[in-house]
Amino acid sequence: MRIAIGSDHRGLALKEVLARTLRDWGHGVTDYGTHRPESVDYPDFAAPVAQGASEGWFDCGIVICGTGIGASISANKVRGARCGLCRTPYEAAMSRRHNDANVLALGADVTPPDEAIRIVRAWLACRFEGCRHARRVDKIGRLETGGEV
Predict the structure, then answer these.
(1) Active-site entry in 60, 65, 83, 86
(2) Pick the catalytic residue: 9, 60, 86, 98?
(3) How far apart are CA 125 and CA 96, in angstroms?
(4) Is 12 part of any domain?
(5) Number of domains the chain contains
(6) DSSP 86-128
(7) I need a surface site. Which of 17, 48, 73, 135 has the fewest CB within 10 A?
């Protein structure tokens, strides 16, 4: 699987752990940074990850900041990105199964690395179920273009 990953300075350590883990699992990983501990802005990294996932350059993306909130908001501003901020493996699985999430957001300040690895494993293991959920995802797409639900 081709996975894009990016973080701000607060997510740097967790990003490095996850990138290494994903590579160990055999995935191709493109790291959009940051690569240094100095303060940076999460939209600068969340946007290209989300764009790559939404345009099919990557199979999916992972964005990380302190709480995951800013990174998820930023990613969700990209047309075609469906980013879920997940705190548990169950939430991660459901974000894929029911919401067709193509970007996962994590909060480095609130998610220990071992739990983040479990969340990512659960997220990657699931696929969109379609059916009644497809109707809801289609409505989200219409909202992106100013359409009505």
Answers:
(1) 65
(2) 98
(3) 9
(4) yes
(5) 1
(6) -SSHHHHHHHHHTT---EEEEETTTS-HHHHHHHHHHHHH---
(7) 135
Cα 90–chain centre separation: 15
CA distances from 10 to 48, 79, 108, 141 (A): 18, 26, 7, 31
| Six-digit token string for 129 | 């179920």
Residue 71 lies in domain? 2-144
Provide the b/e sequence for 107-143 (b: ≥16 CB within 10 Å).
bbeebeeeebbebbebbbebebeeeeeeeeeeeeeee
Residue 65 among the catalytic residues: yes
CATH, residue 73: 3.40.1400.10
pLDDT per residue as tens digits for the range 94-145: 989 887 899 999 999 999 999 999 999 999 999 765 555 555 655 566 567 6
